[in-house]
Each structure stands twice: as structure tokens, then as C-alpha cells.
Amino acid sequence: MATTNTDSFFVNWTPRLLSVLRIITGFLLIPHGAQKLFGFLAPPGAPTPPLMSQIGLAGVLEFFGGLLLLLGLFTRPVAFILSGLMAVAYFLAHAPGGFWPLQNRGELAVLYCFVLLFLAVAGGGEWSLDRLLRRDSRTPLAADAREP
């Protein structure tokens, strides 16, 4: 079966847009961690939590995990850990506020959880340090798309 231009477009751009998803996710996680750790963009007078607390640990994971995601370094294990963090955050902080994520303000935690779970399986994409260090010219998604 001949490959059409549309198929070629998707094969070429899927790994790149996977990288964009990873970069944006990391970029958005960093300020969450920075707010917890350093008070960055925190409401005036809000105390920073102790580093050795659940919120402090979440801040460390969000800030440094977000940075690693932004770079595409150790993408799969970092995304897996952060996905679990978001699941825990949802069930501890949001779920007690009601069943529906819209009601308990947990939509962002749920969305992060599943985007990060996807990244844990899919990897960092074409534009990642993981790929550069691995020196592999084919990403998993691009390789799968080329199979008959």
C-alpha cells in the first residue's frame, strides 16, 4: 500500500508534537513546584511549606521533575513518578471535595496525571535529551507508524 502525503505528515510530526507536549507540560509544572518551594507567584503572605512535608516533597518533584521533562531527560521514569504524584494529589486534596473534578477543582490534577502517564509510555519525542543521548534516529511512535 502506498503512503500518502497525509500519512507522511503524521509520521514526521507525531514525534515532534510529542516533544512539544512534553516541553509544555514541564514548563507548566515548574511554577507549581516553584510556588511551593520558593513562594514564586504565591498569594501575598502565604507561607512556604517545610521541605520535609508532603507539600514540600510535591514541590521538589514538580520543580525538578518539570525541569527534567522540559529538557527531555529521564522522561519515562520522571513522567511515571509525576503521574503518581498527580493521582495522589487528586485523591488527597481534591476528591474529598466531591465526586466530580469540576466540583472539587481537580481537573488539572487529573489532566496532568494522564498526560504524564502517556509521556511515561511514549517517551520524550524527537526533541529530547533522552533521544540525543540514545543517538537513536527512530522514536517509538515514528517507528510504529511506519510498520505496515
Please write out the topology.
Layout (H helix, E strand, L loop, with lengths): L4 H34 L15 H18 L3 H20 L6 H4 L2 H16 L6 H6 L5 H7 L2
Helix pairs in contact: 1-2, 1-5, 1-7, 2-3, 3-5
What's this entry about, in short?
The chain is built from seven helices and no strands. The protein has 148 residues and is mostly helical.
Describe the structure.
This protein is mainly alpha-helical and 148 residues long. The protein has one domain (5-143). 71% of the residues lie in helices and 0% in strands. It is built from 7 helices and no strands. It is globular. Residues 142-148 have low confidence and may be disordered.
How many extended strands? 0
Q: Any low-confidence stretches, pLDDT <50, length ≥5?
A: 142-148
Give the total of domains.
1
- Report the span from N to C terminus: 8 Å
Strand content: under 5%
Helix content: over 70%
Q: What Rg, in angstroms, do the CA atoms define?
A: 18 Å
The general outline is: globular
Number of helices: 7
The SSE order reads HHHHHHH
**Can you give the mean pLDDT?**
90
Q: Please outline the major beta sheet.
A: none
Which class best fits the helix and strand makeup?
mainly alpha
